[in-house]
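In this section we turn from sequence analysis to structure. A common task in structural bioinformatics is to predict how a protein folds when a small molecule is present, because the ligand can shape the pocket around it. The inputs are simple: the amino acid sequence and a SMILES string for the ligand, here flavin-adenine dinucleotide. Study the lines below before reading on.
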Amino acid sequence: MRAFGYARPESLEEAIGLLEEHGSEAMLLAGGTDLMLGLRGGWSKPRIVVDLKRVRELASGIEESDAGLTVSAATVMTDITEDRRMQQRFPALVEAAVVVGSVQIRNRATLAGNICNCSPAADTAPPLMVYGAVVIAAGPAGTRRIPVEEFMVGPGKTALAAAELVAAIEVPFPPEPYGAAYLRHTRRKGTDLASVTLACGVDASGTTRLAYGSMGPRPFLEIDGTGVLADPKVPDEAKAPLFETIFAKASPSPTSMRSGPEYRLAMLRVLGARALRTAIERLAEGGSK
Amino acid sequence: MSDILDITVVVNGIERNLEVAVNHTLLDVLRDQLGLTGTKECCVEGECGACTVTMNGRTINSCITLAVEADGAEIGTVEGLADHGHLSPLQQAFLDTAAPQCGFCIPGQLVSAQALLDRNPNPTLEEVQEALGGNLCRCAGYRQITDAVLAAAAGETS
Ligand SMILES: Cc1cc2nc3c(=O)[nH]c(=O)nc-3n(C[C@H](O)[C@H](O)[C@H](O)COP(=O)(O)OP(=O)(O)OC[C@H]3O[C@@H](n4cnc5c(N)ncnc54)[C@H](O)[C@@H]3O)c2cc1C
């Protein structure tokens, strides 16, 4: 592997200081499951790698407050899938975290890294958007809150400003019972990136939130406030036009090695209908709150 | 020339103080500095699992982990499974079912399977398959491998 410097800051201030000092020549390292491939493959060429895992403010952990669960930057997928509160409150996020890579990958891959890497296929992005999750960014000017759907700008591009990093991701408790589900379509069972990712959430007031990825430069969040999608009595044919509006932004790459655009668009509709059905069922069973 | 850092790691229960290049992976250091060549280098991108080791009890791909990231950690490799030259029950089960064909993936399979049995002593077939999903076998001896893990869990080794 090409040569680079390595820094292991122990405080947030020190980490941000390193980013200010080295600018675009510094790259942050969390679990490394994306970054290490870039370092080896030569498409990431930092002069210095800044390892976040010893920063005490970012240490692995899921904190509960009245507002929700806050996932610190060093928290890996396995920590999320094993957390009882996550399983009970945010099942769709657990469904996404548990299909990321393999056991070995999930033991290293952080939730923050998944969003910061900003792949259109990032599994945790759609459920985070459906749950209204917010990125807590920390930088020289302090911290600010950025909704996940605004944070993910394009492939590999986030809304972070210079010398900013993600300190945590906050997933708010829904104010009323919520039913949500995550589905993805892959070529095979096992380790694979998805050719469609999709999460859907419904609440008792009839609002449906649907987010989907692998269908363009970034995952998209759409909200249906008509109450039609969330209504279990409305037949599928009557829901179809609403799905067409929701999926209007889908423009899958014609050159992807994973599957052709026609197939992806067809599967998007299948997953949309399925996830909506599961979300409605979960809400009817009491949902999570 | 790359920067060098002093690290301390406990490998298979033995503390080691090492000088490592910051751009060397844990896999490089295990194989080339410690001579622990049981851990294999294969895809070098976290897909195949031949380089699987445990770090603080959890399996990781050592090919995409920098050695400096292991500073202060406990590492377990396939060499740590046998007890004073006696194969572990899991290793014996692999032999009993003829799971090792060419053998190259087996160290990684063993480390992943042992980590599974440590957290779930009685796994179902599906749980074994899920736990070993990150360990590819080019000989496709998957049936023998899962049979071996289930046999070890049931205590059915020779
Ligand atoms: C074999 C394999 C299989 C995979 N399968 C999947 C899959 O099924 N689904 C999926 O979505 N992904 C998958 N991935 C991709 C990867 O595992 C995830 O995106 C993972 O969540 C990245 O997290 P990390 O902690 O490893 O990030 P890193 O590699 O450490 O970092 C990723 C990027 O984010 C930046 N970054 C990390 N943390 C922060 C922070 N706190 N603030 C600002 N920037 C930060 C880094 O600088 C880097 O650019 C796979 C990867 C591999 C190697």
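Chain B has two domains: 4-80, 89-154. As an exercise, try to locate the residues that line the flavin-adenine dinucleotide site and compare them with your own expectations.
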